[in-house]
Amino acid sequence: PNSLMSVLSFCNGSKTASGSCGYIGYKANNNFFLNQKTIGQLFLILRELEAKLRDTQKEMEVLKSQVQGKSSNKVAFGASISVGDNVGPFNTHTTLVYKKVYVNTGSFNVGTGIFTAPVTGVYYFSFSGHNHSSKPMGLQLMKNGQQMVTVYNHVAGNRHETATNGMTLQLEVGDQVYMRLMQNTWIIDNSNDHSTFIGHLLFPL
């Protein structure tokens, strides 16, 4: 018996019966066959789609890295000594530990009082100290073992005093910043949290 065969064509992207806009192939016994020209056109379309897919994947990777970068740039901490008593005096310089933490995105070590920079950038740090002036108070903002800025309250009789200071610092990944109590001085804090240490990233570099 003769095979049942129909010729297919296209017009403006839609398939129609034979005799329309363009010949794309034929169907015989429920099998569809494309001509060589149509196959070539389909390969071109596939290559264009693959190129667009690669471009889309690249754009998604860029967006992903930007989102991750923004997350890693959220760096801040704030803490107070909050011991309810004086700390010091000691016969050597001593790193201060801040026991009450208001906020910490993870780079401030509560156990040691040391902040470690997670990203290269410009940071701002500030600190305050409270003392009874029967003894002096000396505080130093330290970066990698070097003094940056300081405050010093001299002996001034029977009264309480507070001093503050701060500085903007450029840090590399791994740089450490902390507060140091100078030898033979003391600092006092209580539930009012007079003696504090804060820092945050201004912008990455």
TrEMBL record:
UniProt keyword list: Coiled coil, Secreted, Signal
Protein's recorded name: Cerebellin-4-like
Pfam entry (one): C1q
Coiled coil: 39-73
Principal location: secreted
Lineage, highest ranks first: Eukaryota, Metazoa, Chordata, Craniata, Vertebrata
GO CC annotation terms, alphabetical: extracellular region
Domain (C1q): residue spans on this chain: 70-205
Record PANTHER family: CEREBELLIN 13-RELATED, CEREBELLIN-RELATED
